[in-house]
Amino acid sequence: MIKEITAKTLLSHEKNPDPWFGIQYNMNLYRGCSHQCIYCDSRSDCYQIENFADTLVKTNALELLRKELSCKRVKGTIGTGSMNDPYAPIEKKYQLTRGALKIIAEFGFPVHVLTKSNLVSRDVDLLLEIQERSFALVSFTITTSDDVLGKKVEPGASLVSERFAAMYFLARSGVKVGVSLMPVLPFIEDNWENINSIVKLAHENGAGHILAAFGMTQRKGQQEYYFQKLDEHFPGVREKHLRKFKNQYACSANQSEQLQTQFAKLCNQIGMSMKVPVYRPEQKFKQLNMFERI
After folding, report:
1. How many domains are there within the chain?
2. Beta-carbon neighbour count of residue 36 at 10 Å?
3. How far, CA to CA in Å, does 46 sit from each of 34, 42, 222?
4. Is residue 212 a contact partner of residue 263, using CB atoms and an 8 Å limit?
5. Which of 74, 227, 240, 246 is 20 to 30 A from 121 (CA-CA)?
6. Within a 10 A sphere around the Cβ of 239, how many other Cβ atoms?
7. CATH number at residue 245
8. What is the side-by-side strand order in the sheet with 11-13?
């Protein structure tokens, strides 16, 4: 179900850029997501989204964005994709993400787009405009290199192969791109064959970085849905998961330390960064007068 709503505010603010993605301002143009990834943390009860399968469209989002950016004194990176995917299929109709990128380019703010959709390729012109004025980065979430498995864990998202194709197109066009390799689902995706394949495909398709986290998290609301989908698509995995993790929040991948070591070795061999590049604002130097000492 799609429901149009009016939001009171749009951008959430952090004092300093977050250490993982370099994001200082979070922007959610939609609430809820049709990608319906089986592991999605945004389904957790703590976020108080009644039905995560519904998509709420913030019809006044662009008006709010223009108003809020005009008041920002610090040009920090604006991030997309924390509580939804900015390029879910609904974006084809409403084009709020494209409209937001136009405004971000106008105000000269940097942006970091996180998505599981090849629709981001549509906005290559705006991403290049933002990059020319400040900084633009696109990170594709990719947790498996296999289209069949990808459709089981991320049923509404673009095929993994389509994401790699979009990555290649953006990279060839001059946009900085990379991979968010998280989560890595225990007993499903935590094998070296899968990780190795993702890294090599990312490298072949122009990625400059891969940010990895070997494991997943689980909370009330999210956990119940995840278990339901495990029973549906991966018989027997729920029992293994419960035996190992019970109800703990952090669930590390099997042999996570070994995977991390192999991952780091491969990235170093091919020259792939394991950190997200971050926006560095230009330093403004104060001009000293004749009475001040250097």
Report:
1. 1
2. 18
3. 20, 9, 10
4. yes
5. 74
6. 12
7. 3.20.20.70
8. 11-13, 25-27, 78-80, 111-115, 136-141, 176-181, 210-212
Q: Which of 210, 185, 283 is nearest to 20 (CA)?
A: 210
Task: Dig out the tokens for 129 from the structure.
Answer: 């405009």
Main-chain phi, psi angles of 90, to 5 degrees: -65, -25
Q: Among 3, 118, 109, which residue's Cα sits nearest to residue 56?
A: 3
Q: How many CA atoms lie within 13 A of 169 on its CB side?
A: 16
The predicted model scores a pTM of 0.93
d(CA 164, CA 185): 20
Q: Is residue 12 part of a domain?
A: yes
Distance, CA of 86 to CA of 26 (rounded, Å):
12
CB 138 within 8 A of CB 113: yes
Splitting the chain (294 residues) into consecutive groups of 10 residues, what average pLDDT does each group show?
94 90 96 92 84 90 98 93 89 98 98 98 98 97 98 97 98 98 98 98 98 96 95 97 96 97 98 95 54 46
Q: What whole-number distance in Å separates Cα of residue 73 and Cα of residue 96?
A: 24
16 by Cβ neighbours in 10 Å (0-12 / 13-18 / 19+) ranks as exposed
